[in-house]
């Protein structure tokens, strides 16, 4: 019973962080004072939190690797230039999820974001979740 309760509260915590990250990512694109790489960094954070929600019992290291692979995969997919995917990228969904163009700096931002959120998860959030029990 306690483990199930802890898992539910953990999912709620990660879901709130996921929503907050989406909001911050969108806001990072609205203000020109914020460097563009911050949005890419937050994209990796968002993917990590999404995986954390879906795979709550998996080790954080596995989620770090999966989030990096997903972000890299999406970035390398931008090299694919078929007409149908170009049209999809012109939509709001396509622009936010698939991106516009391949950039090596995005790879660096994804890596940094995933590593930062992994460290935060390991150091702070895991200890916070233990207090819920």
Helix and strand arrangement:
Blueprint: H1 2-30, H2 36-54, H3 60-77, H4 83-89, H5 92-98, H6 104-131
Are there runs of 5+ residues with pLDDT below 50, and where? none
User: With helices defined by DSSP (H or I, 4 residues minimum), what is the helix count?
Assistant: 6
Oligomeric state of the chains?
single chain
Q: How many DSSP-defined strands?
A: 0
Number of discrete domains? 1
Task: Provide a concise account of the structure shown.
This is DUF2809 domain-containing protein. The chain crosses the membrane at residues 12-28, 34-54, 61-81, 101-120. By secondary structure, the chain is an all-alpha fold.
Written overview of the protein:
- By secondary structure, the protein is mainly alpha-helical.
- It has one domain (2-131).
- Helices cover 81% and strands 0% of the residues.
- The protein has helices spanning 2-30, 36-54, 60-77, 83-89, 92-98, 104-131.
- Helix 2 packs across helix 3 (60-77).
- The protein is globular and about 45 Å long.
- The mean pLDDT is 88.
Offer a few descriptive terms.
133 residues; mainly alpha
């Amino acid at each position: 019973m306690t483990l199930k309760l802890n898992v539910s509260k953990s999912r709620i915590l990660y879901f709130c962080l996921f929503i907050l990250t989406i909001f911050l990512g969108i806001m990072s694109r609205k203000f020109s004072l914020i460097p563009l790489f911050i949005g890419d960094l937050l994209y990796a954070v968002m993917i990590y939190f999404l995986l954390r929600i879906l795979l709550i019992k998996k080790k954080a290291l596995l989620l770090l690797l999966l989030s990096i692979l997903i972000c890299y995969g999406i970035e390398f997919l931008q090299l694919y230039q078929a007409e149908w995917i170009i049209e999809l990228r012109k939509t709001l969904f396509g622009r936010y999820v698939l991106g516009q163009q391949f950039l090596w700096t995005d790879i660096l931002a994804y890596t940094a974001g995933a590593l930062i959120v992994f460290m935060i998860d390991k150091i702070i959030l895991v200890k916070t979740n233990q207090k819920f029990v």
